[in-house]
């Protein structure tokens, strides 16, 4: 405390304290960041692809940040419940969100999100990108992609397709597949593809289009039958699974994850988080794990906060146009 401070009137003391706080708080907060564990919100259930990526990165980011990164699954409403939780959190870098393209597609699907998508989030960095895999339960009759698509054309209404809620990747993939085949599947919504995949393995649902991250291990374990991948090329880890185009159905879908803080988080804090994420993406053990499940880190040139912000804004515009062109109208959240 400065000499003579105590002799000032309480109003003047308060004014000086406010000025000092205004001048010092942001850089001081960033210098001490992080000063407690960081929560990484995963907007889907545990065991799904977003959860797997979050836990892998969290472990490595904890080491460079010197504080634990704790994953919290806040599932529901196609990933929008977790996004809402982030928006309501303090903008101090201690609460983060990992999300994929569904965060950008949400405003074209829901009209009462309760936040403005382009303004509510501070992008920290892009993470991984990869395809979806269309797969069936082992006892589903068709043995290959062509047979599956033929079967679906005739009997889609008798086939149950699982997804993680309206707007999730698995839902968008199911929608693209329905449009390409000109059919309607019987849909079953879950709080994430973790539980949806469990039910596919158990034979409770017929079909799931999920990210390669969680589909590949089940395929390699002989637990589900792969029909097609949604990338332009086959995956090295699934050399016998054709692309959907090879099987005569054009379903092109590449997903991507990014990490976000609430808007208003200090720049210096966002930079520290971006540095910790970049360090994790250089780790050979992370890259090996990505490769093993057919997903890839973004190239190093795209690791900046600016590259993530640009991609996010572009994707919000892209999905608004794509979904409006497909006749999709935003609905109210339940
Ligand atoms: C999940 O982690 O459950 C998925 O990312 C959900 C999805 O978008 O399909």
Quick overview:
The chain is α/β, with parallel strands linked by helices. The chain is built from twelve helices and ten strands.
Topology:
Elements: H1 10-32, E1 38-42, H2 49-65, E2 69-73, H3 80-87, E3 95-100, H4 101-109, H5 117-120, E4 121-137, H6 145-155, E5 160-163, H7 169-181, E6 186-189, H8 193-201, E7 207-211, H9 212-220, E8 224-229, E9 254-262, H10 267-282, H11 284-292, E10 296-297, H12 305-325
Parallel strand pairs: 1-2, 1-3, 5-6, 5-7
Antiparallel strand pairs: 3-9, 4-7, 4-8, 4-9, 4-10
Helix pairs in contact: 1-10, 2-10, 4-12
The protein binds D-malate (MLT).
Keywords:
binds D-malate; D-Maltodextrin-Binding Protein, domain 2; disordered N terminus; alpha/beta; 334 residues; single chain; ten-stranded mixed sheet; globular
CATH homologous superfamily assignment of the largest domain: Bordetella uptake gene, domain 1
- Please estimate the helix content: 40-55%
Task: Tell how many strands the DSSP assignment holds.
Answer: 10
Shape designation: globular
Count of separate structural domains: 2
What is the overall pLDDT average?
91
Kindly provide the radius of gyration, computed on alpha-carbon positions and rounded to a whole number of angstroms.
22 Å
Small molecules (ligands, ions, cofactors) in the structure: D-malate
- CATH class categorisation of the largest domain: Alpha Beta
Tell me the structural class.
alpha/beta
Distance between the ends = 53 Å
CATH architecture of the largest domain: 3-Layer(aba) Sandwich
Compute the number of helices.
12
The major beta sheet can be summarized as: 10 strands, mixed
Strand content: 15-25%
Order of helices and strands: HEHEHEHHEHEHEHEHEEHHEH
According to CATH, what is the topology of the largest domain? D-Maltodextrin-Binding Protein, domain 2
Uncertain residue segments: 1-24
């Amino acid at each position: 405390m400065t000499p003579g401070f105590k002799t000032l009137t309480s109003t003047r003391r308060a004014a000086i304290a406010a000025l000092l706080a205004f001048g010092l708080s942001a850089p001081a907060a960033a210098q001490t960041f992080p000063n407690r564990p960081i929560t990484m919100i995963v907007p889907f259930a545990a065991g799904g692809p977003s959860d797997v990526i979050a836990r892998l990165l969290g472990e490595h980011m904890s080491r460079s940040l010197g504080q634990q990164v704790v994953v919290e699954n806040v599932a529901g409403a196609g990933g929008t419940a977790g996004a809402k939780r982030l928006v309501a959190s303090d903008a101090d870098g201690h609460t983060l969100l990992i999300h994929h393209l569904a965060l950008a597609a949400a405003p074209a699907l829901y009209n009462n999100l309760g936040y403005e998508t382009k303004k509510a989030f501070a992008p920290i960095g892009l993470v991984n990108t990869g395809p979806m895999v269309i797969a069936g339960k082992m006892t589903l009759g068709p043995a290959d992609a062509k047979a599956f698509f033929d079967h679906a054309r005739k009997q889609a209404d008798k086939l149950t397709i699982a997804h993680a809620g309206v707007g999730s990747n698995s839902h968008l993939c199911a929608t693209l597949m329905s449009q390409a085949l000109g059919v309607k599947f019987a849909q079953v919504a879950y709080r994430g593809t973790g539980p949806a995949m469990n039910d596919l393995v158990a034979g409770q649902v017929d079909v799931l289009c999920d990210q390669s991250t969680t589909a590949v291990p089940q395929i390699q374990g002989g637990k589900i039958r792969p029909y097609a991948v949604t990338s332009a090329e086959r995956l090295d880890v699934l050399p016998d699974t054709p692309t959907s185009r090879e099987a005569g159905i054009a379903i092109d879908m590449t997903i991507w994850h990014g990490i976000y803080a609430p808007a208003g988080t200090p720049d210096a804090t966002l930079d520290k988080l971006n540095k910790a994420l970049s360090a994790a993406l250089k780790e050979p053990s992370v890259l090996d794990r990505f490769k093993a499940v057919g997903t890839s880190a973004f190239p190093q040139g795209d690791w900046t906060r600016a590259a993530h912000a640009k991609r996010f804004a572009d994707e919000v515009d892209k999905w608004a146009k794509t979904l409006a062109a497909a006749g999709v109208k935003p609905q109210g959240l339940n």
